[in-house]
User: What shape does this take?
Amino acid sequence: MRFSARYNATNGQAIVLEDAPRATRIGFIKGMLGDFVGTQSHYAKATEPLETTSVHQKFIALIRDESDPWDYDNESSWGALTDHLKNCTWLEFYDFAELVGKLLIELDEDPFSERKQGYFKKYQAKLNSLLEEDGIGWSLNEDAELTRQIPKSLSDRVNNTEKQLKDKYDAARIHYGKAIKYLYQHPIDEANCVKEIVSALESVSRVLHPECTTLGDAIKIFKKQNRYPKHLIESMEKLYIYSNATPLVRHGHASATALTIDEAELALHIGIAFIRYLINTGQ
Assistant: This one.
């Protein structure tokens, strides 16, 4: 599913993260695109891995455009492509950014290709550097899909927590990974994000206390132990109550009101903090 389709699948719940301002488009075209897309000639070997007109035709087919590449510029295939990229919608611009990434992955993985230069990694690094420099809230992942960028102040903590969830915490790591994916990849699913981070916290708690079957059972034990401050455990209990009482998270409700991204993100990072705390203090 292309970027624009995933974005639209959020039913208007997704936020626009600085869309694709003209300066970013120009930076993309003049600063990096020419390293990966160029015009092939019958008389000279192409220096770029992807051919301009072919890529443009694939882009037009992807976004269901009725025009042909040459309709955008009468001077050259490069001019036609860049004219299209300057004037398409911001969603279509990011459709193109993903398309180039996917084509480069195919080229890198082609066993019959003579070009074994890791083009995708270079493209991914340059694109993400451009987006970060311009303060754009998207980043290209290993599958050439643009996802919401985790705020820099939180990304290290998110990654470090995932590294802690290994060996006996493998089950918790699966829930944790799902929670991150539900919030930072489209379509965004706020309710399942909260559900999975609480499930990850529950899994960690059950490793520490195998006799427990739920996070609620573990919280009762935590309250009886002197090693945990009373008010912190009460905060954990409030998160657990919130997940059970909020529509569409852990239980069905007759009247359902959708969570917001901000609410899900708050619950996610509270859950992350509790997971780190329990692992570090419960060994």
